[in-house]
Amino acid sequence: MTTILAIESSCDDTGAAVCRDGQMLSNVIASQKIHEQYGGVVPELASRAHIQHIVPVIDVALQKANVILKDLDAIAFTQAPGLIGSLLVGAQFAKSLSLSLQKPLIAVHHMQAHVLANLIDDPKPSFPFLCLTVSGGHTQIVVCESPYSMRVIGETIDDAAGEAFDKSAKILGLPYPGGPLIDKYAKEGDAARFNFPEPNIPELNFSFSGLKTSILYFIQSEKNKNADFVQNNLNDICASIQQRIVSILLKKLQKAAKETGITNVCIAGGVSANSGLRKGLTDLGTKMKWNTFIPKFEYCTDNAAMIAITGYYKFLKNDFADLSVTPTARAEW
Ligand code: KG4
Ligand code: ZN
Fold it and tell me: Ligand 1 pocket, 270 CB below 6 A?
């Protein structure tokens, strides 16, 4: 039996999870409300909040899993990419635990972990699979050949899909993070009401900054005519924005499936919690005869369960880090 404690602290959520032989026993997350008032994550405040949350979050994760420290076989942690101060808190804590318990340390790449979140629950995709990884900082199409072999075949050249949601929400006067709110209002809206432009970007890459600018100009011009425009049309605006972001994402995913011939198709990352994207992928998958996979909500946004499953696969390969390992804000695949 292999029992792993995983720690995730790359951005503004402090997470801890315990898994045994790849089965999740607990997955605990403490979100940081403090950033809402600033309209985005403030890195220094995030690091401080991680310091406050990390002990109680790990404590609850161990209790829920009914595991004590000496039962652990390894400590996994997010090594990169992310906010450096936030990463440092998780990395130092993981290293201290590893040293004091004399148990191996496993360094995990946050974006690879988002992809492998698809391996937490059954049914699991078989290899190779395609994964559209969409978060607040990344938008990538990844070919995953095994838990140990992944390559990025397309990515954004400017904003990430999550940023497109959050920046659009900000233009509408909604608080941060705006993605879930756009999703909520879109459910009641007419997506065909407003037509936002689709970028023409070569190959499997994405761009969202032009869309954001066109939304900004459109809203400014409508507000000049009617100050209550956003308020009176919020649901339809959100539905139209969401449907455009989703159509940009799915069009490239379809192109990737065609070019690679891969028919196992997954999504991952915070934006994969979006109900329009989840439904869009399911519908497209039925049409294209793909096998589609969507992680549970709690495994889409940042979480430690995905670090735990990635840590488990690394454990099976004895892929351990030594105590000199340091977190890095950016990381190659
Ligand atoms: O993966 P994640 O939790 O953190 C990063 O690694 O970035 O992704 C966060 C992003 C934010 O931009 C947030 O607005 C977006 O995911 N998001 C959503 C939804 N839930 C989270 N975007 C659209 N619809 C949602 N339901
Ligand atoms: Zn993430």
Answer: yes
